[in-house]
Each structure stands twice: as structure tokens, then as C-alpha cells.
Amino acid sequence: MSEQAASASADRDVILQIRDLHTYFFTDLGISRALNGVSLDVPAGKVMGVVGESGCGKSVTALSILRLVPRPGRIVRGEIVLHRLDRQGGASQMTTEVRLTDLDPQGREIRSIRGGEIAMIFQEPMTSLNPSYTVGDQIEEAILFHQKVDKAGAEERAVKILDQVGMPNPASLVKRYPHELSGGMRQRAMIAMALSCTPSVLIADEPTTALDVTTEAQILDLMRELQAQIGMTILYITHNLGVVAQMCDTVAVMYLGRVVELSTVDALFYDPKHPYTRALLHSIPHVGSRTKARLEPIRGVVPDPYTSVRGCPFHPRCDMIKPGICDVRVPAPTVGGGDQHQVRCFLYSDLEETIYEG
Predict the structure, then answer these.
(1) Which of 48, 145, 240, 321 has the most CB atoms around its CB within 10 Å?
(2) pLDDT per residue over 215-273, tens digit each?
(3) CA-to-CA distance for 18 and 322, rounded, in angstroms?
(4) DSSP readout, 227-293?
(5) Structural domain includes residue 227
(6) Those residues with Cβ within 8 angstroms of residue 15's Cβ, 6 or more apart along the chain or in another chain
(7) Rounded to whole angstroms, how far apart are CA atoms 58 and 302?
(8) pLDDT tier, 86 (very low <50, low <70, confident <90, very high otherwise)
(9) How many Cβ atoms are within 10 Å of 200's Cβ, its own excluded?
(10) pTM for the complete prediction?
């Protein structure tokens, strides 16, 4: 296979590319480096999980993709490229590239992509839904903006999608306001809004936080079913490693604005490489375990976002630190076992990365 053919094949396998993404927040307290060089290839038609402690940059990554980073934050370096199918390409299925980082955050092109091609389920439904409009009006607005249907068709589609996410009596619920719904129902309304236009990429930021375990299982099954039906790609942000094992094909582990490990879901659970990934897995209880050993919490806390950690960002909490190396140099990503398993750790490589300070 020629180099150009291999590149075209790779483009069809990857729907979203993130390269060396730096997103900073410039505040009166200083510069908060929320993302410090994130690089990801999101595979097309698959479910990629993004895990890590609070404050590691998962949600900021999602907002950066949609160009919704709130002020005083902004993308200062890097690129985000969306590969979408060119419908005029015929049987060749050629893809066109859209460099999202070059678009005006308030422009018409990025607004057509938000909701239409890339949708997001936000973590807080009460702050994401407009209290002045009914649930039906808000879902129908997205459908009318992105699809060629009339008002009656949009209302029919809204009722159908609410029924799909398990809402009781959806024909009546479309006329109710967000404050009239419970937290779980508002969360399902948000999911319905995101899925209403059958996007190519769905970013789910803790989509089942407010739901009980039974409803959570139903929503996860629904997302998997829709993903299989329309070939949708899901970027699933969560703290729940059990959901990752159930939902995801590949997993990116983030810590302090960087991806420290990237692998398939099986490799992550059976052969974790990075000390942070191992610590995450050791800190969760295991169902059916016969041992009475105590859980092993990760010592220390995530550093303050306004401070700059010299060397590997995890070295202050790492039990396998190499003094004089880990506390001085930043590890570059390297293959840690298998072509799809990458890790940033000096236990597996002596490659060093150039630090970008902005």
C-alpha cells in the first residue's frame, strides 16, 4: 500500500484528531493550564472512554472540541481536526477535513457542526436547559436548525426521541418546563436533545450522573444501540471504570491536562502500564473479592491548576519515581506494549518531551 493510500485509510478510521492541544485560563490569580499538550485520535464508529480524577482536563477537552471554552479561557496552541464523510465522494468514501481550531467560535460553520455533527451531553442538566422554554421547544429548536423538517415534523421527532430515552408519556412531557421534571428526567431530556439530530460524534460528559443504576443501564444500552445503528462515535467522559469496561473500546487516561496512557479497554484492565492507571484500578472495590484487604487510595491530591509541576506531573504522588529523572524531565509518549498501547512514563522509555510554557 502506498503512503498516500495508507494515509487515506487512516483518515477513514479516525473521525477526530487532537494534536498538542493547550487550553489555558488567564485569570487574576494567574494562568491555569487546563490542557497541557493533549493528543488523541478518536476512532470512527467506536466508543472511546476518557477517565481521570476531577481537574485533570476531561471536560475542558470536550469544550475545546466544540469551541465552547468560556472566557477567560482560550486555546493557545494545537489543532483539532474533524474528518467527515464527503457525500459526493461516491463509493470511494473520501473524507473532508475541517480544522475546528481555525473556525470562529461564534461563526455559522461551527454552529452548524455543534449539535448537527458533534453533539454533547452536559454534566449539569439544570444549568444546561433554559428554564424559560419547554423541553419540547428546546429539542425542536435543535432539530429545526440542523434538519430540513417543518414544525410538525420536529415535534414528532422530539416525542419519538423522548420515548426512546425512556420518558413516560413523552407527548405530554414536551410541553413541560425543566423545573417540572426530576433530576433524572432532566438528564434524559439532555440526552434526547443530543441524540435528536443523530450526530456523527457524541461527547458524553458524565451522562448518567443523576440517574439510578437501573435507568443508567437502560441509557447505556440505548447509547450502544444507537451507536451501532448509525455508526456514531462516542467520546465518553466518566469517573466510573465499571462503565468504561461495559461501554468503551479504547480508553484515554488523563492527568493534569495530559493523556498519560492510551490503550484498548482490555489492555487497560489486564495490563495497565502507567503508575497512575494502576493506582486508579487499585483504589476501586472489586465485586466478589474474598480478601479483606483495605482499598489503596492514591496518596496526595491533584496539584493546584495555577502551579507548574516540574518534570512528570504525577511524580509527587508516584511510588515508582526515579529521582533526578521524573522530577526534572517530562516523559514523551511511547509504545508500552502493542501498537495501540501508548504510555507517558520513564519506566518504559527515556524519551523526553519539549515543554511548552506559552
Answers:
(1) 48
(2) 788 778 878 887 887 778 999 999 888 889 888 999 999 999 999 999 999 999 998 99
(3) 30
(4) HHHHT-EEEEE-S-HHHHHHH-SEEEEEETTEEEEEEEHHHHHHS--SHHHHHHHHTS--TT----P
(5) yes
(6) 42, 43, 44, 45, 82, 83, 84, 200, 201, 233
(7) 14
(8) low
(9) 22
(10) 0.87
CA gap 303, 296 in Å, rounded: 19
Distance CA 108, CA 338 (A): 42
> CB-based burial of residue 150 (10 Å sphere; 0-12 exposed, 13-18 middle, 19+ buried)?
exposed
303 located within any domain:
yes
Cα–Cα distance for residue pair 74/32, rounded to 1 Å:
11
Starting from the edge strand earliest in sequence, which strands make up the sheet with 95-99, in order?
30-43, 14-27, 73-85, 95-99
**Cell for 157?**
421527532
Q: Is 179 exposed, middle or buried (0-12, 13-18, 19+ CB in 10 A)?
A: exposed
CA-based nearest residue to 253, from 239, 266, 242, 234: 239
What is the C-alpha radius of gyration for the chain, rounded to an integer number of angstroms?
A: 21
Q: Does the pLDDT at position 117 exceed 80?
A: yes
Q: Convert the pLDDT of each residue in 300-328 to its tens digit.
A: 888 887 888 888 989 999 988 999 899 89
Domain count, the chain: 1
Distance in angstroms (rounded) separating the CA atoms of residues 325 and 256? 19
Least confident of 62-76, 78-92, 100-114: 78-92
The H-or-E segment that residue 192 falls in is helix 183-195
Helix (H) or strand (E) holding 195: helix 183-195
Task: Provide the CATH number for the domain around residue 234.
Answer: 3.40.50.300
Exposure class string for 2-11: b at 16+ Cβ within 10 A, else e: eeeeeeeeeb
Q: Taking residues 289-310, report their average pLDDT.
A: 77
Q: Is residue 277 part of a domain?
A: yes
Is residue 126 in a domain?
no
